[in-house]
């Protein structure tokens, strides 16, 4: 017959438990410590998960690129760059989907991304390129059409249209080098924000601190930042400068009020697309960093490891779910709480 469990006071701030022939004494302090450790550990894990996703590619690798490549997309053997086009369209997506909206509140996360790219037609100066995009899409299997579609969308029933398609759930920033009148392009050298359509909700001629930047002039760095709390997106670009690598402009090129939670699902894929027109144009991405969080954009640090075009070869960095130093601070706080309880 199982003996009943007896519970009696043990000292001034504890209790004694008896089960069978065994008797245990727990102090109140020990109990409090155990509860605090449990609560703090739960908080640490919650914050760690909430940190979102962070990854950086200083260069790309054929062995384990961490990317899903569609169409023309490939990794260059010589320069270890992500080549998006050959003579058609290509798309490259980070292999793991990213949390973009909170499952319960449906609020948007914040993110920042930066990358170095180039659009080069030097192999055939008569070739026509279209440009490339940074995109946020719901799947990693769809490839958009070449030409004015930028590898981003496909024409509906073979027709060209700028009518937004809510089912597309696609957000993109286009770096467009061809004026396509069917999509109301402002010129043949512009940056625009696209939502479910190639008719940009806002676009400007490519420039950096009021100086025009030719998108086909060489290596260019772009920054895209979205604050989920302020519901605001900004885009900046700058060309490579021999004396200062890629100086970030003092003022963004584009600043747009937009609530992405209205256009994206809970999990989305991020990456790039590009397309050629006639002939061969190389659209390349040389390095790429991305970070997301459910906090404000102001909490971000600089995650822009983009060496100059002539810099040494660098390995691909590993993906991380949260910042190591943040968890270090949380664990240090947990230790202080435990020691404080034991002191009493």
Automatic annotation (TrEMBL):
Listed Pfam families: Lectin_legB (PF00139)
Keywords associated with the record: Lectin, Membrane, Transmembrane, Transmembrane helix
CDD domains documented for this protein: lectin_legume_LecRK_Arcelin_ConA (cd06899)
Superkingdom assignment: Eukaryota
Domain Legume lectin: 54-295
Database matches in InterPro entries: ConA-like_dom_sf, Legume_lectin_dom, Leguminous_Lectin
SUPFAM superfamilies to which the protein is assigned, alphabetical: Concanavalin A-like lectins/glucanases
Membrane-traversing stretches: 32-49
UniProt record similarity statement: Belongs to the leguminous lectin family.
Protein name: Legume lectin domain-containing protein
Lineage: Eukaryota, Viridiplantae, Streptophyta, Embryophyta, Bryophyta
């Amino acid at each position: 017959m199982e003996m009943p469990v007896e519970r009696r006071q043990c000292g001034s701030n504890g209790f004694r438990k008896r089960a069978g022939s065994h008797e245990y004494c727990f102090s109140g302090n020990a109990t409090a410590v155990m509860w605090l450790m449990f609560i703090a550990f739960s908080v640490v894990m919650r914050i760690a998960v909430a940190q979102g996703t962070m990854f950086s590619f200083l260069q790309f690798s054929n062995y384990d690129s961490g990317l899903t490549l569609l169409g023309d997309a490939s990794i260059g053997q010589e320069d270890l760059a992500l080549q998006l086009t050959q003579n058609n369209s290509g798309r490259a997506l980070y292999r793991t989907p990213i949390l973009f909206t909170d499952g319960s509140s449906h609020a948007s996360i914040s993110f920042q991304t930066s990358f170095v790219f180039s659009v080069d037609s030097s192999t055939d100066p008569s070739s026509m390129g279209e440009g490339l995009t940074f995109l946020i899409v719901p799947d990693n299997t769809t490839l958009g059409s070449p030409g004015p579609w930028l590898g981003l969308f496909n024409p509906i029933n073979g027709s060209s249209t700028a009518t937004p398609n809510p089912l597309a759930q696609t957000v993109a920033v286009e770096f467009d080098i061809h004026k396509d009148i069917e999509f109301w392009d402002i010129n043949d050298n512009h940056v625009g924000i696209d939502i479910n359509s190639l008719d940009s909700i806002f676009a400007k001629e490519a420039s950096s601190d009021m100086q025009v930047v030719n998108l086909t002039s060489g290596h260019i760095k772009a920054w895209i930042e979205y604050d989920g709390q302020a519901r605001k997106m900004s885009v900046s670009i700058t060309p490579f400068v021999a004396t200062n690598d890629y100086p970030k402009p003092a003022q963004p090129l584009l600043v747009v009020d937009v609530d992405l939670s209205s256009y994206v699902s809970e999990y989305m894929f991020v990456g790039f697309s590009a397309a050629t027109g006639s002939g061969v144009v190389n659209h390349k991405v040389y390095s790429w960093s991305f970070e997301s969080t459910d906090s404000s954009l102001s909490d971000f640090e600089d995650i822009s490891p983009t060496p100059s075009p002539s810099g040494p070869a660098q390995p691909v960095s590993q993906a991380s779910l949260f910042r190591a130093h943040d968890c270090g601070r949380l664990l240090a706080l947990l230790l202080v709480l435990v020691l404080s309880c034991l002191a009493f």
